[in-house]
Amino acid sequence: MGPVIRPGRKRSEESRQAILSAAADLVGEVGYAGLSIEGIAARSGTGKQTIYRWWPSKADVLLEALAAKADLHIPIPDEGSYPADLRAFLAASFALGRKPQVIEVLRALMAEAQINPAFGERFRTGFLERRREALGVLVERARTRGDLPPDPRPGTVADLVFGLIWYRVLATREPIDDALIDELVSLLAAG
Amino acid sequence: MGPVIRPGRKRSEESRQAILSAAADLVGEVGYAGLSIEGIAARSGTGKQTIYRWWPSKADVLLEALAAKADLHIPIPDEGSYPADLRAFLAASFALGRKPQVIEVLRALMAEAQINPAFGERFRTGFLERRREALGVLVERARTRGDLPPDPRPGTVADLVFGLIWYRVLATREPIDDALIDELVSLLAAG
DNA sequence: ATTTCGAACCGGTCCGTCTCGGTTCGTTTT
DNA sequence: AAAACGAACCGAGACGGACCGGTTCGAAAT
């Protein structure tokens, strides 16, 4: 008793790719504020309706473009010790953030998440919380191995890590580099 | 050789107050996205030009409204010990954040700071860095007293504190309450 | 047959600038 | 002292431009 599905024209993968790469290019040229659906449509050679049909907002287009462009796989490394695991996790997570354009997009998406509640929910559950949980798994494993003292509250380590990273990105604008990895590892894996 | 002072009508303090309180009221009713210069002008009974003459953007109006409404004095308490000082600093800093409307405005301003570069510079230097420096003074005093081990990098403590706070506000949306104060104090004043 | 596609076209909102007549000052002249 | 003057302000609103979100169209693909 499945629904009667009448076949129709399939979604154009070509248009999808064109839209995503046009969005990624444009945001690097004109910034997030200067980015518009109309601009994406014009650059990609598609129509506005094609974009509105598949994405709720320009922020969602950018989020998918970010996920498509770079590999957003979240690693949970097992190097044998907590400091090594943490270092490997951070190094893999920062691979993206080396490019200023990616940081620019991340800042814009975090900003949009504050202004647009619906996108905020998608951004939190689909992006932020995934990373938080991945780091949580890593920490929990170290804890059962006895590499780490018990947590005052579940998720404290992850909140400290991502808090410091996002504060750098959003507020102080210091670069995301190897020195930050060293600092985080020494702060959280020493005591 | 002082500046040549041209006579003219003085700035209306009445209009300034009306604009600030109208902005504060409106942002609580329609949210930051729904807030507009035209709306502020209409609600305050002033003209758009009067607003554009004195503030570069609606975010600047809100920032001044926030500073005017609540006392934004940044305390540097001296309770005799580092944990007590830190606790007093956090308690005073969080006094504002108890109201959800204030949090809403802070989130919007941080978002705007990411999108509007000129306002971002003002927000960082005039708001964020002031708090960072205040906490830095407090930490440095504790360090010279020997209450705290030397810092791997200047400002590490402040970055951890404000990173965790802002990450809560922007990402996890957990409340800013006394439990957070306890957590921060035990995390940073114990080791 | 059904759905997607590119394209064109609205109605509406807000921005940022500008203009207008009128008001409040400090300065200058009488 | 009193009046005239000019500068910067005031509220109100018109204006062009940009963009949004949605609709409709014929053509194309399956």
List keywords for this structure.
191 residues, Tetracycline Repressor, domain 2, 9 helices, homodimer, DNA-binding, mainly alpha
Task: List the SSEs and their pairings.
The structure is a homodimer of 191-residue chains.
Chain A lengths: L12 H22 L2 H8 L3 H7 L3 H12 L12 H16 L2 H16 L1 H28 L11 H17 L5 H13 L1
Helix pairs in contact in A: 1-2, 1-4, 1-6, 2-3, 4-6, 5-7, 5-9, 6-7, 7-8
Chain B binds a DNA duplex (30 and 30 nucleotides) through helix 2 and helix 3.
Entry summary:
The structure is a homodimer of 191-residue chains. By secondary structure, chain A is mostly helical.
Please explain how this structure is put together.
- 2 copies of one chain form a homodimer.
- With 191 residues, the first copy, chain A, is an all-alpha fold.
- Helices cover 73% and strands 0% of the residues of chain A.
- Chain A has helices at 13-34, 37-44, 48-54, 58-69, 82-97, 100-115, 117-144, 156-172, 178-190.
- In chain A, α5 runs antiparallel to α9 (178-190) and α6 (100-115) crosses α7.
- Chain A binds chain B through residues 32-33, 107-108, 110-116, 124, 128, 132, 152-153, 156, 159-160, 162-168, 170-173, 183, 186-187, 191, and chain B through 32-33, 107-108, 110-116, 124, 128, 132, 152-153, 156, 159-160, 162-168, 170-173, 183, 186-187, 191.
- The structure holds a DNA duplex (30 and 30 nucleotides).
